[in-house]
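Chain A, query sequence.
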Amino acid sequence: MKHASWAAGALAIAIGLGIGSGIQPAQSATFKWANDGDANSMDPYTRSETFLLTFTQNFYDPLVRRDKNLKVEAALATSWEQPSPTVWRFHLRPGVKFQEGQPFTADDVVFSYQRAVGPGSQINAYFQAVKDAKKVDDMTVDFELKFPDPIFLEEITNFVVMSKAWCEAHDAMQTMDLTKKAENYATRHANGTGPFILDVREPDRRTTMHANPGWWDKPDGNATDVQFNVIANAATRVAALLSGDVDMIYTVPPQDMERIEHTEGLRLVQGPELRTVYIGFDQSRPELLNSNIKGKNPFKDQRVRQAFNEAVDIEAIHKVVMRGQSHPSGLLYGPGVNGYTKASDVRYPYNPTEAKKLLADAGYPDGFDVTLDCPNDRYINDAQICQAVVAMLAKIGMHVSLNAQTRLQYFAKISNPDYNTDFYMLGWTPSTYDALNSLYNLAGTRNGTRGVFNDGGYSNSTFDDLLDKIAVETDGERRDAEIVQASKILHDDAAFLPLHQQVVVWAARNTIDLVQLADDTFPLRFVTVKPAK
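Chain A, predicted structure.
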């Protein structure tokens, strides 16, 4: 990893509280926490979104998981080896049962793989290198690859295992497509092998769970009863923490940080995050959905995309909107991600005069109408960032309408094969902590596995060829050089409008010990509730 000043904080525990302090879980306890948005589904394959993935991993276990230092460790697989360069063999943990009593076997792993790459799933990109998964015996599974994959273990840390028998019994063999608002039994229920058991599920309001007494592992924390509350309004969420109605809030408004920090009994928990927030353009349609320009798509012109990049004052967003709690970026991935170099992290300069000229040269001297789709409960100050972008683009003559909505509505709109957006905000944490994950998922030409979250339909065959090389390259230096080359193509194309990496900011009572990771995941098995003094 390069540039250790940021990366060391990013790939280690950003804030680890109570670790190594000699504190031991003293007693079972209730833990209440809140966020501005919900996980939207209890089906772990529904969406490759950090909050949904971290939430459902409280109920479900993967074959391999990440420890407190984000290193891969054994989970449902106790060991693994490669009999050949294109075969990964996993030996499964014996004696494990799902929460409703079904035994965990290789059949569940093979079924889960087939479900994860099947219709409705949005985690199929994890298996872009996989040809098939086969049962060797009841406790052994082989993943056969199409080509050698040097980061395969890193790619499957968010692939959790579901019970084949349970899915069959409840007609939940297939993942339901959230973009179509479809549901089945697995949407609101859970039956995993994980540390917690789902009790009450009230979407967009609250979810409760209790510790799984039959879990195969030993939790590091002592939370036995957990209540999660959705509190969309920032002021109300902070008030719930101040009053003691909740013990922790996962999303802290920057404007309330100082108040929380100076309140007795509370503290901020913060550190750098691996997620990059950016803005994308529809570059696939011959004509935009919501524009006064008919018969052509302005975003197909590189000059227009570059003009948008040069019109956005990222330093103003950093200082005013984010109150310094961001790391401006020129890439789709940031420090702490393998393949990142400071030299390649270059933004187009803020230059509204040049931006206006680029628009005029492209044939739009008076700008044009377009709609910016944005969530209002997913990223830190997401709607406020979009409002700032709209105002900045107005200065170069653009007429941008802002469509801000809840994450459930937002992702259902933009994340589907029809690209139902002209211009959109998105954030991405590379789950492998490798640049290929971002490049492959966000910018690769869509083919059913590649480019699943390329919601604007960007396509460049030279870029795709580089992705294929990076995927199988085992020489580290050559691979890093190919990553830089691929990112330069995106920069020269002005394919996206990168914004920043957020700073992860949580807030908690002093009686709560927890671990904050740079991927913004929140494993409840690490939570300890201490008696108030």
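The longest strand covers residues 266-281. Residues 476-493 form the longest helix (18 residues).
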